[in-house]
Structure formats: structure tokens, C-alpha cells
Amino acid sequence: MERLHIHFSSGLPSDEGVISGMRRSANILIYLDVRKALQDGMKLYISDNKVVLTEGFDGVVPVKYLEKMETWTGRPLIPFQR
User: Fold this and answer.
1) Residues β-bridged to residue 71
2) How many angstroms separate the Cα of 30 from the Cα of each of 56, 70, 74?
3) Cβ(46)–Cβ(9) below 8 Å
4) Which of 11, 41, 71, 82 gives the lowest tally of CB atoms within 10 Å of its CB?
5) Is 53 helix (H, G, I), strand (E, B) or coil?
6) Is residue 38 part of a domain?
7) Is 51 contained in some domain?
8) Burial 16-42 (b: 16+ CB within 10 A, else e)
9) In a domain, 81, yes or no
10) DSSP state of 69
């Protein structure tokens, strides 16, 4: 099976009403800067179960569109360069 989109959740597994399919065993959370992505023309779609889908640009979401990264347990920030 080949996926056509990059999947983002609209919330955390512990949030009420979130049925995104994000695994509770996930240990890193990557936050997308939606405003910047949309301003630069990235197409985003929201599925019926509130999964945020994108093709990115040529199948990639460049690092400059990542707002922040956290570990799931304890949630310290993970440093990265945009």
C-alpha cells in the first residue's frame, strides 16, 4: 500500500473527540505551522475523521513548516533548525 498524503492529527490521542488514528505509542509530536504552510500554497485537507492530509511539496513537508517538536512523555522540546 502506498500512501498519497502525509498525515497529521488535528489533536492529541488524549483529547476528547480525536479519532485520528495517531498511535498512543507515539513518542514524538511534530507540530505543523498551518498558517505558514497555507500562505506558501501547501494544500491541506481534513478527512471525515479529522485527519489533516497534505501532499506537501513534491511529497515532502520541508522543515521550515514545522512549528515545534516535543517528546510525548514529559513533552520537553526537541531542538531543530528550520
Assistant:
1) 28
2) 15, 7, 15
3) no
4) 41
5) strand
6) yes
7) yes
8) eebebebeeeeeeeeebbeeebeeeeb
9) no
10) E
Placement of cell 490521542 in the chain: 13
* 82 located within any domain: no
Range of the domain at 54: 6-71
User: Cell for 37?
Assistant: 504552510
Number of domains in the chain: 1
Task: Give how far Cα 63 sits from Cα of 17, 21, 23, 51, 52, Å.
Answer: 29, 23, 22, 20, 17
Per-residue pLDDT tens, the chain, 82 aa: give them. 577 888 888 877 677 766 666 666 678 888 999 999 999 999 999 988 788 999 999 999 999 999 988 887 776 777 877 7
pLDDT at 73 (0 to 100): 72
This prediction has a pTM of 0.76
